[in-house]
Amino acid sequence: ADGANASSVIDNKTGSDNAGILILDGDSELGSAIGATNSLASVSIFNKVGGSTIKFDDTLDTEILTLGANSGTATFVGEAKINNAVNFTAASQNLVFNTSSTLANGASFAGKASTITVDSAAGNNTFNGALTTTTTDTGTLAITGGANTVTIAKAVGGSGKLLSSVTIADSTNATFSEAVYATSLTAGSGTTTFNADVAAAISLTDGAMIVADGKNVNGAINNASANGTTSLTLSGSSNVSGAVGASNAISSVSLINKASASSTFSSTFAATAITLGANAGSVTFSGTTNINDAVNFTAASQTLTFKGDTSLDDGINLKGYASTLILDSTPGNKTF
């Protein structure tokens, strides 16, 4: 019943998974494991009009997690295992995972303005479940917790079905193992690593962004802090389609970090400094480019190509290496 709590284990002792139903009518706290021996058939939450607050203090293993058509927050303190897809059914529903958990068939925001929060305050946290939506620009993934690392092991959103936002709290580290599609992605002072493509308007505040070799960024990368220390590292070959540092220059951009790396910035580019790894490779800047500090070559067979109006405030130094600077005026006059 609404307001009732349970401290005892709620278990399925039938000898096989997928038996037993737990219905929470409203606010409840469950103090012990649920489905410890075998999984329950289903657990039903958010059944109270006006919203409910639910807390699972220990592990949860269920085939189905059913969300009622009401707002609410459910916090999973222990490991959660949910076999069937989780479907949001109303706005302002929030599922909070404080420990590494698995949604075997993922979760769909189903066009609802609701949230999944993955928190690492208690330690590194891996969330294993794809996140989708049926209507683009709906659903939020919030990553919180401080200095530990949250790993999102499955895809976030999809092409043409973008989540509304991905938010990464200040000081929190996040690693995305598969592709990310969102209207916006904001990150604080931690390190955000993309091991697959990302399509989003990205805003960084005093943090580091790392893009894996062979992965691309489809969207702008902006520095939200005028006096910050935002950095961008391309680990190998990558293409960045959107403007970089449009409102505030990126503090530091690290390039050619793998032998024969080839990267392209397709739009405008502004950075306080760029550093080149000690490898052969190439970088093409297609739009207007502004770099404040001196650009120093660091190895032979490095090629920098500038196709737009370019301002290198402290110049460029080949440092005695047999490398190449290309100024390309196609399709019209350019100023270097």
What are the key terms here?
mainly beta, 15-stranded parallel sheet, elongated
Average pLDDT rating: 97
Strands, total number: 36
> What topology, given as strand order, has the largest sheet?
1-3-5-7-10-13-16-18-20-22-25-27-29-31-34
Helicity level: under 10%
Described by strand count, sense and barrel closure, the largest sheet is: 15 strands, parallel
Low-confidence stretches: none
**Rg calculated over all Cα atoms:** 24 Å
- Strand content range: over 45%
Shape: elongated
Query: Tally the helices: what do you get?
Result: 0
Structural class: mainly beta
- State the distance separating the first and last CA atoms: 72 Å
* Oligomerization category of the chains in this entry: single chain
Summarize the structure in words.
Helices cover 0% and strands 45% of the residues. It is an all-beta fold. A 15-stranded parallel β-sheet has the order 1-3-5-7-10-13-16-18-20-22-25-27-29-31-34, with no helix packed on it. Strands 2, 4, 6, 9, 12, 15, 17, 19, 21, 23 and 24 form an eleven-stranded parallel β-sheet that branches. The mean pLDDT is 97.
